[in-house]
Specification:
- This protein is of the alpha+beta class.
- The protein is built from 3 helices and 4 strands, in the order βαββαβα.
- The chain has a 4-stranded antiparallel sheet, with helices on both faces.
- A hairpin with a 2-residue loop joins strand 2 and strand 3.
- The N and C termini lie far apart (46 Å).
Length: 116
């Protein structure tokens, strides 16, 4: 059964722009190669971490919403754990209410603000 998921991962801040782009494309391709469909992707940029991770205080944040089979999550989490460029990751299954909320949030961001 195909479900909708959301994943956030943090890349180490010592990477160059090319290495960051390469890492992001790697996971985007991994999702697509395993029959997944990317619904939304966001780059939150370089942000300060709440607490140091691996002696680093900042990291590049990325969010992906995707639809996929449940079996694929094991592959994705294993790939995250093996990649030394990723300092933290999280994958969450979205229920029907969360899917509606994210769609509503995306539509608000895409629509220009209405002025009177």
């Amino acid at each position: 059964m195909i479900n909708q998921y959301e994943t956030v991962f943090i890349l180490t801040p010592v990477l160059s722009d090319v290495q960051v782009k390469e890492s992001v494309e790697k996971y985007e391709q991994l999702i697509k190669d395993n029959g997944g469909e990317i619904v939304n992707k966001e780059s939150w940029g370089l942000k300060k971490l709440a607490y140091p991770i691996q002696k680093k205080n900042t990291g590049f944040y990325f969010l992906y919403e995707f639809k996929s089979e449940g079996e694929f999550l094991d592959k994705l989490t294993t790939a995250y754990k093996r990649d030394e460029r990723i300092i933290r990751s999280l994958v969450v299954k979205l229920n029907k209410h969360a899917v509606k909320y994210t769609e509503k949030k995306r539509n608000k961001v895409q629509e220009p603000a209405k002025t009177e």
